[in-house]
Amino acid sequence: MHFKWKYDAPTPQQSQQAKELGDKLSMSPILAQLLIKRGITTESAAKRFFRPQLADLINPFLMKDMDVAVDRLNDAMGRKERILVYGDYDVDGCTAVALVYKFLQQFYSNIDYYIPDRYDEGYGVSQKGIDYAKQTGVKLIIILDCGIKAVKEIEYAKSLGIDFIICDHHVPDEVMPPAVAILNPKRTDDSYPFKQLCGCGVGFKFMQAFAKNNGIPFSRLIPLLDFCAVSIAADIVPVTDENRILAFHGLKQLNQNPSVGLKAIIDICGLNGREISMSDIIFKIGPRINASGRMENGKESVDLLVEKDFSLALKAARHINEYNEQRKDIDKQMTEEANLIVSKLESQKHQSSIVLYDENWKKGVIGIVASRLTEIYFRPTVVLTRDGDLATGSARSVMGFDVYAAIKNCRDLLLNFGGHSYAAGLTLRWDDIREFRQRFQHYVEEHIQPEQTEPILNIDAVLDFKDISKRLHNDLKRFSPFGPGNTKPVFCTTGVYDYGTSKVVGRQQEHIKLELVDSKSGTVVNGIAFGQSASARYIKSRRSFDIAYTIEGNIFKRNQVQLQIEDIRPTESEDEL
């Protein structure tokens, strides 16, 4: 895939602003320019950005219903009621359940946890889950990362004498469930200053408030921050403001003293002895936690995350790793089948969206397939599979397009739906799929912007190779953790040449190992271009080309840096940037 490059050169005013900020912070203009682009224009804001402080976390009692939720939890404990911690089967839900359960278990023993079975119960609050709570004498359910739309189910629980505290971050409906308390910063009547918490983040704020109310030192919460980092990375929420603080300190915990369960996953992933990043969570840790919910039951992941014995945790992690291998095989097969359907559907080529369905696809993997198709075709995508007379599906979106709004527009056809701007789930009658596809595609065509349907690579700064050094790499590391709202800086250098030693590598000769020289400074740098072997012939032709890249550490030579090439294109003109 080749990208459209977008570079907004700094205005004279921004350049002056960057120079002044750089002087105050003893920082190069390049780095100061990166701060300005992130809306950080003062010395104090820069210090908060580079050194996120747990003391700057928002007062949890600013969230609507927080006082009610803490009072109800205190009452439950005082009356020795049985408490059930209930959550979704994805990474965010499993880490949220593990965090709340592990924290409360230190102070209270009459507590259990529950993860619904994706295949038997479906998403969110299930009648089976409520019946289990009734049978085991539960009086209070704390539900995490779901529940905001479970009106009928929570009414049923209420009729059985079971109260609910909802901790969710998905977009609420006009009518909300009759829970004792609803903690959700996306509530229209909630003035909590940060709206982008993940489900685990909302659970953490609840525990923060509970600790504060009961005189429990904040230090008791710090060991649980690794769960927050894992959920923030895996749920792809913005790594800004409060999420940045939680992710920064969560990564610190994950690297220095992870919980037993996460330590076992780190071992299985082969990440031992390496500094773990948000990217490692997204591609290695997260998929393994997700795998048990996709293939069997997500409760196995929570069992692992709350395990205290390392040898047992390692055994469970190996089991979950097997699920992940099975998931990868099914995911690959389904993506190939979906690609074949797209290639055969001539009508889809001109559509602004993709809606695919197959009654044999596995429910647990359709979300990944939707993500893959969105990445390949750069269009909002819905993938559905059959469940009796119903179709259940997952939707994924492209940058800047609200897929939740597109699905909500078809709500009269839907039996259930939920989610947020970039990801959603839905259930409808199998016979209504065709009408849903027409309506969904019409909405997307009416609302999507042309630039949202092509892959754009945002360039942060133009560099010469002489500007690239180990010191610059170390300075750039201070911008982490990276994610939406704070993406890893992408640079470009124009007019570069093969130094003569670049070669195609990889098991299937799919990557290029590069040694490059730029025409301005004559400096030589190393790089790797994953999956871009199609450009090898042009590179070896000795003609000049432009590269867009991130600056990484060289894992083989600790004192050197290497470029990770995002895109390669023939040199045209710097005016094209």
What topology does this entry show?
Blueprint: E1 4-7, H1 12-25, H2 29-37, H3 43-50, H4 66-78, E2 82-87, H5 91-105, E3 111-114, H6 127-135, E4 138-144, H7 151-159, E5 163-167, E6 181-183, H8 199-213, H9 225-234, H10 241-256, H11 260-269, H12 278-295, H13 299-305, H14 310-344, H15 346-349, E7 354-357, H16 366-377, E8 381-387, E9 390-396, H17 403-408, E10 414-419, E11 423-429, H18 433-447, E12 456-459, E13 461-462, H19 470-477, E14 491-498, E15 503-505, E16 511-518, E17 524-529, H20 536-540, E18 545-553, E19 561-570
Parallel strand pairs: 1-12, 2-3, 2-4, 4-5, 5-6, 7-8, 13-14, 17-19
Antiparallel strand pairs: 8-9, 9-11, 10-11, 14-16, 14-18, 15-16, 16-17, 18-19
Helix pairs in contact: 1-2, 4-8, 5-8, 5-9, 5-13, 8-9, 9-10, 9-12, 11-12, 11-14, 12-13, 12-14, 13-14, 14-16
List keywords for this structure.
single chain, 577 residues, alpha/beta, 5-stranded parallel beta sheet, 5-stranded mixed beta sheet, 20 helices, 41% helix, 19% strand, globular
